[in-house]
What does this fold into?
Amino acid sequence: MNIQIFGRGKCFDSKKAERFFKERRIKYQYIDLDRYGMSRGELKSAVSAVGLEKLINDKHKDAEIIKAYAYDENKTDALFDEPALIKTPVVRNGRAATVGYCPDVWGEWIKNDK
It folds into this structure.
């Protein structure tokens, strides 16, 4: 199991995701989106796993502008350039990924890994 958590320091769901894996003694890598962002490859992997629309943070002031872009390629570029537009936490396990707090899915990952 190779868990990566992309989150923000002030995001409560990111903290809950970290706590979920800590309590189960599962190693994970935490990446601060505001500080480091996501690489293009990581972003493409997340988009293919969960879909582009789920990754867009509806609470961001520019979310409606991004959603109005005609092409998904432009939306992906906008998310890469402005990581604040990405909804957190994004939790990746290989090619699988979730957006937001999804303990049921993470539990399935753990069960299937054993």
About this structure: The helical segments are 12-23, 33-36, 40-50, 52-55, 63-68, 72-81, 103-113. The domain at 3-113 is CATH 3.40.30.10 (Glutaredoxin). The first strand starts at residue 3 and ends at 7.
